[in-house]
Amino acid sequence: MRRRPQPFRGVAAVVTLAALFLSSSASAATSVTSFNRFAYSNLTSVSNAAKYQFVLLGYGSGTRSQAGVRALIASIHANDPQTRILLYKNWSVAPGDTLGVNGCAPWNSSQPFGGVPMSWFLLTPSGTPVWNSHYAYYMLDPSNPQVQQACASDAATMAKLGGYDGVFWDTQYTSLFWASLSPRNCSSAMCQSDANWHSGMTSWVTNVSATLHASGLLSFGNIAGGNSSAFLGGGPGWWDAFLQAGFDGAEEESFTSGTNHVPIPLANWKLEVANEAWNEANGKYLLANADVGSNQALNVYGLATLLLAAGGRSSWDTDSGNYLTNEYWFPQYDTALALGGPLGPYSVQANGLYIRTFQNGSVAVNPTTTTISDPVYGNVAGQTGLIVGPGSPAPGGGGHPSSGGSTTGGGPGASAARTAGPGRHRSRTRMAHRRGRHKHHRHRHRSAHPARVPA
Q1: Burial code of 407-421, b = ≥16 C-beta within 10 A, e = fewer?
Q2: What DSSP line would sit under 395-431, residue for residue?
């Protein structure tokens, strides 16, 4: 049995990460606030895209619409070469996707199972391909070298033709639990144990990312289950492992709030901040999203949390789960852009408030469920964040706290933050939105039930 990678832990490792983070933070002269947007219906513009570190654009549903996307991407790059455009892909095939825009191969309706070789599919105990009836696609076997080659080559060719900077791979499950698979509904070798699943997914990430890198493209994954206890087979150890295997960045789609549109438990919140700090220390990007729509308070809570560990590679998603047409931009986002560089890592005050100071302001986050009374920030309600910008007094009227305020420990990457239990929230992978024949897939999985976490 493959030995499962352990979550980031250990005194020496924590000291190393803290030193790296302190060094990068102290030398930062510009804002570390960044944003991303998922715009599958391509309702963006050159000026709109310039606001973002990353934009994920759909590639249309036909030759005419794809030509329009190519022209848009070329214009975006000409205006701002720093904006990076990602292409959506999934390790699946779907009836009706005759161009293979979302999956790994075009569907030929005149052939059984679209003309895709039977050996490419994950198979049920009865020998038929595993079918996701909710999102209407067949699941391929990501451990199969032929599938890996076909998916990677297809994605690289499409991305280069479209002018994209990289590929965003959906459904990067960290265990059978998060994939909603088991030997009961999948007889393929990969489904027989989490050890098999981990081995197959690691091979997938390594090989498809290598192909994309050889073409000068980035490889991103939407990692499901990276913010929950390893009891469910996933956890931070596999978040790290998938990134180390080849991903340049990852999305946390339930950052601070789950698919039920409410904040996640404190244990999972700590895991997410620690995952972000790990990404920053290891040169990996983070795309953070919360499915909270137009809820301003929860969006600000998410962004303020992100800024606790941000170092230039972490960005906040402004569509907030409405991936086709919506973009939410609140005044606090402009305030965050004006904060300047961080003066150091975040600290945890004795009252439980998480604080980070910047050149032109500060952020304060209360991830607990109870109100915290603070002499500087006033009464900070549970599961809220504050972004205090240049020239504006802190809510409590006491001015900005110094970077050396009282703490109870726990900077970026503290080992305790990587070993917490799962909690009761939904963590899942991307989207199933339909626009004509052009589909994108999003999985909403069962809630993570309270686990029997060993003492």
Answers
A1: eeebbbbbbebbbbb
A2: TTSS-PPPTT----S--TT-GGGGS----S------E
Residue 110 exposed, middle or buried by CB count within 10 Å (0-12, 13-18, 19+):
exposed
Of 93, 312, 87, give the one whose Cα is nearest residue 215.
Answer: 87
CB neighbour class for 243 (10 Å; exposed up to 12, middle 13-18, buried from 19): buried
Distance CA 410, CA 229 (A): 19
Give all domains of the chain, ordered by start, each with its CATH number: 32-341+425-442 (3.20.20.70)
Residues 305-363 have pLDDT tens digits of 999 999 999 999 999 988 777 899 999 999 999 999 999 999 999 999 999 999 999 99
Closest to 169 (Cα-Cα) out of 204, 203, 117: 204
Q: How many other C-beta atoms lie within 10 A of the C-beta of residue 119?
A: 10
Distance separating alpha carbons of residues 365 and 360, to the nearest angstrom: 17
Q: Is the dihedral of CA 127, 128, 134, 139 positive or negative?
A: positive
Contact (CB, 8 A) for 357 and 304: no
Provide the residue count of the chain: 455
* Residue whose pair of structure tokens reads 């199933």 in the numeric block: 432
Please give the backbone phi and psi of residue 403, each rounded to the nearest 5 degrees, phi first.
-70, -10
- Residues ≥6 apart with Cβ < 8 Å to 128: none
Tokens (6 digits) for 84: 């990076």
pTM of the model: 0.84
| Side-chain half-sphere exposure of 385, counting CA atoms within 13 A | 27
If pLDDT is split at 50, 70 and 90, which confidence band does 445 have? very low
The span from the CA of 64 to the CA of 67, in Å, is 5
| b/e map 376-405, b = 16+ CB within 10 Å | bbbebeebbbbbbbeeeebebeeebbebee
The encoded tokens of residue 206 equal 């390594």
- Does residue 43 sit in helix, strand or coil? coil
Among residues 306, 103, 142, which one has the least CA distance to residue 317?
A: 306
- Name the residue among 225, 337, 219, 336 with its Cα closest to residue 285: 219
Q: How far apart are CA 394 and CA 402, in angstroms?
A: 12
User: Do residues 412 and 309 make contact, with C-beta atoms less than 8 angstroms apart?
Assistant: yes
Residue whose pair of structure tokens reads 């009961």 in the numeric block: 184
Decide: 211 and 152 in contact? Cβ < 8 Å. yes
The Cα 178–Cα 421 span in angstroms is 16
Instruction: State how far Cα 229 lies from the chain centre.
Output: 17
